[in-house]
Amino acid sequence: MATGYYFAHRHILGIEQLSCEDIAHILSTADSFKEISARPIKKVPTLRGHTIINLFFEPSTRTRLSFEVAAKRMSADTFNISPSTSSTTKGETLADTARNISAMHPDIIIIRHACSGAPLLLSRNVQAAVINAGDGAHEHPSQGLLDMLTVKEHRGTLSGLKIAIVGDIAHSRVARSDIVGFTRMGSEVYVYGPSTLVPKGIDQLGAKVCTSLEEAVTDADVVMTLRIQRERQNDPLLPSLREYARHFGISRQVLSLAKPDALVMHPGPVNRGVELNPDVADGPQSVILDQVTNGVAVRMALLYLVMGNS
Fold first, then answer.
1. Strand arrangement, sheet containing 263-265
2. N or C: less crowded end of the chain, CB within 10 Å?
3. Set 62, 99, 232, 259: catalytic member
């Protein structure tokens, strides 16, 4: 880290806005916070007296709970709002919801929304810092950061690695954050999936589009699989999940093409027997649960850093 570095971001809307120095600083900060989760009493007063609102308009288990755990471990007051309990069900716009929440003077708002750009809209209508917890098929920055932290822990570097991402690239905000993040930090990202699920122009983010599963996985340092996101597909883009598993699923045989110590990753939830065989998901190369653990540390780091600019 260069002398005089300053983390200048008030909002975290995407990996795209972060420089190499920003990413390195976030990962270093997250690494320092991991020690807190290992204590008998997992609590520090860092954000005592601050209010954090989780505004989740889409279902979530890992991300929502992870942000809430991160906030509580730093002694912040947290409140959860879901679509069924918000006034958007009565016709209120997101902008009006944002203004009403802002009038209650929260310090940080964490938002997940089905529409790309919703966090940006929110950031323009509130005084609080805004963290994007996933917007449409745009970005999921905290997931991208925890993926990078997990790889760095196991590999010691993010430079010079081959990252293979296999699955539903078109509907995956995780894929976009990972492509931008890993590429920015010096890795090469290879993507592969059904032709209907690999969007045109994804190579402009820095990814190499592969024509076969073998090309994507061979000699990879990391093999990341993605869930088929049927809830975001207007029309069926696959003949069947069984057909997908046969041609695109990661089995022991497919994984043998990667480096012997290749990491197996998945942002969750895992559809066992579809994108990942159970023996691979639970195998010695899987770091899926490490990703979950690192998610808390990364989100603690983000809450801490944006509060420094609030």
1. 208-209, 188-192, 162-166, 222-225, 263-265
2. N
3. 62
Alpha-carbon torsion angle 182, 183, 188, 189, nearest 10? 70
The position carrying tokens 């209120």 is: 92
138 is catalytic: no
With contact defined as beta carbons under 8 Å apart, do 11 and 305 qualify?
no
In the chain the domains, ranked by start, together with CATH numbers, are 15-139+293-308 (3.40.50.1370), 141-291 (3.40.50.1370)
- Say whether 124 is catalytic: no
Q: What Cα–Cα distance (Å) separates residue 244 from each residue in 183, 192, 239, 248, 271?
A: 27, 12, 8, 5, 12
pTM of the model: 0.94
Q: Which of 3, 61, 90, 211 is catalytic?
A: 90
Local mean pLDDT, 10-residue blocks, the chain (310 residues): 82 98 98 94 96 94 96 97 70 88 96 96 96 97 98 98 97 97 98 94 97 98 90 60 92 98 96 95 98 98 90
Quick check: is 63 catalytic?
A: yes
